[in-house]
Design a protein that fits this description.
heterodimer; A: 115 residues; mainly beta; Immunoglobulin-like; seven-stranded mixed sheet; four-stranded antiparallel sheet; 0% helix; B: 114 residues; six-stranded mixed sheet; 12 strands
């Protein structure tokens, strides 16, 4: 079974703090993704990565950055957290690239509250 | 550009009745379609996918989905709903050509009433 783990289930931070969300997958997947989930808005893609040290912007990258130094780990960074970044953050991974990119497998999510 | 629409925010169904959760999509080429389910405070779980072949796809927990190219739809169905099917359901699509990631719908909350 594919396993995608996220470093925290719940996180509370203060405005202006730097926040790191970690995601690790154990299936040697090439692709990794970060989404945020908000009621009524569904899942919105923040950043994704098709390979180590590669990153591409998704639909809502503003206020976020990412790091992928190792294939199995993909980190989401909030440089200066703001209250409008309070959300559920979901990490996912998948095998393959381009047209053969396959099913995404999701972690359990991190519910981040910024006060 | 690719997009997906789930026209119903909420679907209510009685236990034992058939259920349908609707999804329509738009891609420039051929679609690669998915359904995922999310239980409270959990990540998304894969239910089923369509890439090619038989238009009726069977997935986990007794769910199935029917691909209809002319109507650009991929509705999720189950013949007999269970209370435990109550969850949030997401449809997703990507174009088979190119290197674009999945696009997700906004989700449909299914409530199965005993």
């Amino acid at each position: 079974d594919v396993k995608v783990t996220q470093s925290s289930r719940y996180l509370v931070k203060r405005t202006g703090e730097k926040v790191f969300l970690e995601c690790v997958q154990d299936m040697d997947h090439e692709n990794m993704f970060w989404y945020r989930q908000d009621p009524g808005l569904g899942l919105r893609l923040i950043y994704f990565s098709y390979d180590v040290k590669m990153k591409e912007k998704g639909d809502i990258p503003e206020g976020y950055s990412v790091s992928r130094e190792k294939k199995e780990r993909f980190s989401l960074i909030l440089e200066s957290a703001s209250t409008n970044q309070t959300s559920m953050y979901l990490c996912a991974s998948s095998w393959g690239r381009g047209a053969v990119a396959d099913t995404q497998y999701f972690g359990p999510g991190t519910r981040l509250t910024v006060l | 550009a690719q997009s997906v629409a789930q026209p119903e925010d909420q679907v209510n169904v009685a236990e034992g009745n058939p259920l349908t959760v609707k999804c329509t999509y738009s891609v420039s080429g051929n679609p690669y379609l998915f359904w995922y389910v999310q239980y409270p405070n959990r990540g998304l779980q894969f239910l089923l996918k369509y890439i090619t072949g038989d238009n009726l796809v069977k997935g986990s927990y007794g769910f199935e989905a029917e691909f209809n190219k002319s109507q650009t739809s991929f509705h999720l169905k189950k013949p007999s709903a269970l209370v435990s099917d109550s969850a949030l359901y997401f449809c997703a699509v990507r174009d088979l050509k190119g290197n674009t990631p999945l696009v997700f719908g906004k989700g449909t909350r299914l409530s199965v009433i005993a």
